[in-house]
Description:
alpha+beta; Alpha-Beta Plaits; five-stranded antiparallel sheet; 7 helices; globular
Amino acid sequence: MQFTNQKITIAGHIVEYDFMEQPIKYGPDNRKKHTSTGHPLTTPEENEISSANRAKSAVRRLVNSNAHKWLKANGTSYLPIFVTFTFEDDIRDLDIASSFFKVAMQRLNYFVGGSKKHFLHYIAVTEFQDKTREGVIHYHVLFFNLPFIEKVYDEIKRIWRHGNINVKSVRNVKDLGRYMVKYMTKNLKDGRLKGRKKYFASKGLKRWTVLYDKDLVSLVVELLPEETKINTVSFDNKHCGKITRTTYDVRNDPKALAWLFDLVLNKPQ
């Protein structure tokens, strides 16, 4: 087990460098979540806030790690597609809605993949229609490798079977991770989601990479071009004090993208 007060998180073309006031544990002997020593016990309310923040970070990083990363047979990448699934009936029960959604995803997977073998990669978030339908559930889904479908609206609606759908292009959205998170934010502290999954992710999604080694972190920060820096923000964390996070976007820097990709592939164990 080792300690560090710096880490790098690589999620697709987005790189986050965190400098922490207090060190955290990392390494193969640290089986639990990375926490600092001697931190105070948390309340249930604080645990719920922490859970919501982790969910937002996970969704943002999963999206950035998978958008434009799945390839067609010809070697070009799939364009992410955003689809909203709504219920015609007034379904407010999360278990019932979740069951319908999972079965529909299985049907869609079979339709585009030609078998029951897992093919589709996506991430989905739940939203409640409180303003117009008194809490009826609907789902926002970002597909990472949905193939071209002739008459896509009609076909997906037929496969869905439970109401309307909306298909939206996100070709021009610069930060898909934050775009997806905005659909989560207003519901994350909703009591109806307490103890529930804050999002659904298909099997086999690419994960983000976290680096803790001090020398490697310093090297990455040194090599990241200054012009790729987006912003620097600071916030307090109960476990490790003040965190200063600098975010970089290297999507328009092919050289930086290439060595980051190589670094992820050859990450030291």
